[in-house]
Design a protein that fits this description.
- The protein is an alpha+beta fold.
- It has three helices and 23 strands.
- A hairpin with a 5-residue loop joins strand 19 and strand 20.
- Helix 2 packs antiparallel against helix 3.
- The protein is elongated, with a radius of gyration of 42 Å.
- It starts with a helix and ends in a 6-residue tail after the last strand.
- The C terminus is likely disordered.
Amino acid sequence: MNAMSKTISSTLIIVGCLLSTRLVLAQAPQAALVQVAIAEQQLLAPTIDIAGTVVSRDSAQLSAEVAGRVIEVVEIGTELAVGDLVIRLDDPVIKAEKTQALSRIKREQARIEFYEREQQRLQTLKETNLAAQSQIDETELNLQVARADLVIAQAEARARSADVERLTIRAPFKGEMTARAVEVGERVAIGTIVARVMNPERLEVIAQLPIDSASFIRPSDSITITKNKMVDVGKIRAVVPFGDPQTHMAEARIDVDSSRWLIGQTVKVKVPIAEPVRMLAVPRDALVLRANGSSVYRVTSDNKAQQVKVTVDKGNDKFIGIRGGLENGDRVVIRGAERLRDGMTVAIQESKTLNGG
């Protein structure tokens, strides 16, 4: 009986200990899941969004350099290499003029051959006093005229041959046929725009920016370009060194990743409106805004959340400069800060740096 009582007592003690342990664990606060980034020194400048348009660096409206009737046109969307046929014209008059010019060359060559033989014959006769000097001089003059006429005929033939070549309108660069203004059978005059060719593999963004901002960007500077949720980083290729006195706007040309954009898209370009300043910066998501001021949560070495009051400084769309109790290299909470209290234990779910690494 005593043994049974001891067994029951031992069992009750064990059960009591287990229940106490579970109660303690249930009452213990769980670590809050957060994501962090590193506070780092960075060059920051305030920015504004301006509109830009994606265009091709290689874009040409092709026009007819000679008049003629359209006999062949490639389809819109056709991929073209340099020199590929775009439109072929026909004009019998131009071709006939080329034939005439080539015939004039043969005629002048025949005249030259005749006068050269005549000159040799007269020189031989002169040795026996059978030819007058006036005959020799006249033949020399005719020979010089024939040679000059040959040069003229050759130049005319080159011009007419070039006209025949111009009957075929070719792609000036690698690209695609994006538009055509004529159809087979139509007759076009000199200067008529007949087609457009663009290269979709060499794109850039053209943006009109406030002229005061032009002094804050330079060729090769990186610049952020967005459209909806799409974000890209382009490089300033050129800033037109003068502005429009009426609109007070200047033009920037920005190289972009051609595989990500389409010609004609409207995008937003973030341009600085002041010189960049090096300062301690954190992602904007790290800021906790309250009525009594701004703060961030720093994660200590023992994974405790420590609220730090900060003063907000310059910033851009991603980062904000801060002044206060943070130091370079501190870990700051960028996700989950809304659930934190000073001194809470945190569990780092994912660590990120300022550059998104």
